[in-house]
């Protein structure tokens, strides 16, 4: 069974008649032409599709990472908004470390065990959150994980907000949260 995201992408690529599209050529039709999503949701969809490896970016264009011919777009198709439900984003945030570790392993040809050990070491030595340590290690190995910054920041902010509702002050968490901003400095 085709996922809704694949159907949306197949529809867009078939509609355009092109094999590669710019990000704008993906999100603008979703928001403006078809009125399926808000502009923000359309941007989120593009990020989601890239992070799920449904789209790959080459030379500034996005290409589907699956066969468009194998996807059947139902007549009168209109996507549900389930794709933007918290469940999908929560699941993605939970898997973010594993996905970054896999990406680092793939590009550095190191085992997952080695990367996990390095992750734990950096996390402990630098007093980093696991997500930030993964960003740090990726940067250290020259692996581009800039697409993950927003997800990491969002998960840290949400975690911080949830804990603030339970406690008045969290100086240790606030300190750790600042580490993500310093991690951004490595990418500049």
Brief account:
By secondary structure, this protein is mostly helical.
Q: Shape, please?
A: elongated
Tally of separate domains: 2
**What structural category do the secondary elements indicate?**
mainly alpha
Radius of gyration (CA) equals 19 Å
Give the biggest beta sheet.
2 strands, antiparallel
| Contiguous helical run count | 9
> How large is the share of residues in beta strands?
under 5%
| Order of strands in the sheet with most strands | 1-2
Per DSSP E runs of 2 or more residues, the count of β-strands stands at 2
Question: Are there runs of 5+ residues with pLDDT below 50, and where?
Answer: 86-91, 168-177
The overall average pLDDT, rounded, is 79
Order of helices and strands: HHHEEHHHHHH
Q: State the separation between the terminal residues, measured CA to CA.
A: 42 Å
Helix content: 55-70%
Describe this structure in words.
The chain has helices at 4-16, 23-33, 39-51, 86-94, 96-108, 112-126, 130-140, 149-166, 171-187; strands at residues 55-58, 61-64. It contains nine helices and two strands, in the order H-H-H-E-E-H-H-H-H-H-H. It folds into two domains: 4-83; 93-187, no CATH class. It is mainly α. It is elongated, with a radius of gyration of 19 Å. Helix 5 (96-108) runs parallel beside helix 7 (130-140). Strand 1 (55-58) and strand 2 form a beta hairpin.
